[in-house]
């Protein structure tokens, strides 16, 4: 079987940075992280770790009142109910 | 070769995908989602595209005069990645629906399960009734794993 080398050279910055960050987290080389991201087609999405995600949620939570948070929950549950009624037969 | 890379990618990035019911519990104050994340500081977190659809549904359903503040809130929450539902995930969802036959879990949950399985991620969910029926799906919630 013919093998073609797959290279990570000249990758765009937007692709490199999330891979680099993820590589730091996982203590692996950025190049090894970047190639799988190409395959996964998640180029536009950056990696958000649990620490960052927690800070983001806590910061944004204070924007709304308790009642408004409940209303958001109601909206999500309504969407879930509507989508749950759709079945593949 | 691409298949091998995809498998290796999953091994490097053990992501946790958040189901809508986990986020609803966070909104109602019955589950400390931020605390759960903080206890796993190095793990990547993301929403499946279908869950994101459920999260932003209210934005379009609410009256415009009261939605602006909530849109800003969801824009901030949207700082978390949203994982795509594309050809591969669609095929996996169809396969799951065919394999489960009479055991139906709903269109949305098939999509969420397929996205999680294709990306070899874990699913943070409290919905055992539906997702425990999906073979090979790794579920997580507080007290699990």
Structure characterization notes:
The complex is a heterodimer of chains A (about 90) and B (about 140). Chain A contains four helices and no strands. Chain A is mainly α. Chain A has two domains: about 15-45, no CATH class; about 50-90. Chain B has a single domain, classed as 5'-nuclease (Rossmann fold, 3-Layer(aba) Sandwich). Chain B is of the alpha/beta class and about 140 residues long. In chain B, α4 runs antiparallel to α5. Chain B has helices spanning about 1-10, 20-30, 35-40, 50-60, 65-75, 85-100, 105-120, 130; strands spanning about 15-20, 45-50, 80-85, 120-125, 140. Chain B is built from eight helices and five strands.
Total of domains of chain A: 2
CATH arch. level architecture of chain B? 3-Layer(aba) Sandwich
- How many DSSP H or I helices of chain B? 8
Give unreliable regions of chain B as ranges.
8-12
Q: How much helicity do the residues of chain B have?
A: 55-70%
**What is the C-alpha radius of gyration of chain B, as a whole number of Å?**
16 Å
The main sheet of chain B orders its strands as: 3-2-1-4-5
Largest interface comes to: A-B, 56 and 63 residues
Based on CA atoms alone, the radius of gyration of chain A comes out at 20 Å
Secondary structure topology:
The complex is a heterodimer of chains A (89) and B (145).
Chain A: H1 13-26, H2 30-40, H3 50-61, H4 66-84
Helix pairs in contact in A: 1-2
Chain B: H1 2-12, E1 16-18, H2 20-28, H3 33-38, E2 45-48, H4 49-61, H5 64-77, E3 82-83, H6 87-100, H7 107-118, E4 122-124, H8 128-131, E5 138-140
Parallel strand pairs in B: 1-2, 1-4, 2-3, 4-5
Characteristic key phrases:
heterodimer; A: 89 residues; mainly alpha; 4 helices; B: 145 residues; alpha/beta; Rossmann fold; five-stranded parallel sheet; 8 helices; 10% strand; globular
Briefly characterize the structure.
The complex is a heterodimer of chains A (89) and B (145). Chain A has 89 residues and is mainly α.
